[in-house]
Amino acid sequence: MDMVICRDVVKTYRQGKIDVPALRGISLSVEKGEFMALAGPSGSGKTTVLNLIGGLDVPDAGEIIVDGRNFSRMSPSSLAELRLYRIGFVFQSYNLIPVLSAVENVEYVMLLQGVPSGERRDRARAVLDEVGLSGMYGRRPAELSGGQQQRVAVARAIVANPAIVLADEPTANLDSESGKSLLAIMKEMNEKKEVTFVFSTHDERVMDQARRLVLIRDGRVADDIRK
Ligand code: ADP
Ligand code: MG
To answer: Is the Cβ–Cβ distance between 3 and 32 less than 8 Å?
Structure first.
């Protein structure tokens, strides 16, 4: 089953009077359960692809279908609901809420979903245990290393059982050891929970971990390698 379908997707940013083409008719599909990397040089369009698949931005042309839902036929509120229930996000700069503890950051999505507080806390703790952060529930982001913060972000992305997790250069701010262990955790979540992962990177060691590598160049797919 296709988890993601992008068909002839075009996206151009406007900077004042200048048009900046980001995606020039990209087509791509991702099957359920894949662990896929989007690779390519800086400026090639990786973040734009992830933002569009995540429904955080809209294309100028083309179709995006995620989890069987065609974005162009959805109201803003049903798109917001799809994002909340079916898509998890991990960002390069972690994007944790600084005043909340690790466990509260992980609970946040479930709070928005209306999950009762006891269940929320239990599920958040369980997933923090799974990413190797038991004993750090109460720490704020500033009291955690970059690698630990990104594990909290992965826990937050996964805790509500999304269909797909989108991770934009999740290891870019990590040293190579923490990057490697973050990838291992993502892979374990992919296998154990059968969650589809699409992540972008320009780190070759991270690309090596992917089961499928899609190379983006100048807003188009330049290569698609299945390992
Ligand atoms: P990558 O993530 O691979 O580095 P991006 O998707 O961020 O690539 O960017 C693709 C192209 O779109 C680049 O030329 C970039 O400069 C441009 N771009 C991205 N976001 C914006 C924006 N908000 N405004 C103007 N241009 C942008
Ligand atoms: Mg980027």
So the answer is: yes
Extract the runs of DSSP E, i.e. beta strands, from 92-205: 164-168, 196-201
Residue 1 scores a pLDDT above 90:
no
- pTM higher than the cut 0.70: yes
Q: Is 169 left (phi over 0), alpha (psi -120 to 50) or beta?
A: left
For residue 91, which ligand has an atom nearest its CA? Answer: 2
Residue 126 to residue 115: CA distance in whole angstroms: 15
Which atom of ligand 1 is the closest one to the Cα of 42?
4
pLDDT in tens, 13-56: 999 999 999 999 999 999 999 999 999 999 999 999 999 999 99
CATH of domain 2-226: 3.40.50.300
Select from 6, 9, 12, 13 the residue to mutate for testing ligand 1; criterion: most ligand atoms less than 8 Å from CB. Answer: 13
Which ligand is the nearest neighbour of the Cα of 23? 1
Atom 10, ligand 1: residue with shortest CA distance? 45
For residue 224, how many other CB atoms are within 10 A of its CB? 11
For residue range 92-108, what is the model confidence (pLDDT) as tens digits?
Answer: 999 999 999 999 999 99
User: Which DSSP category does 162 fall into?
Assistant: -
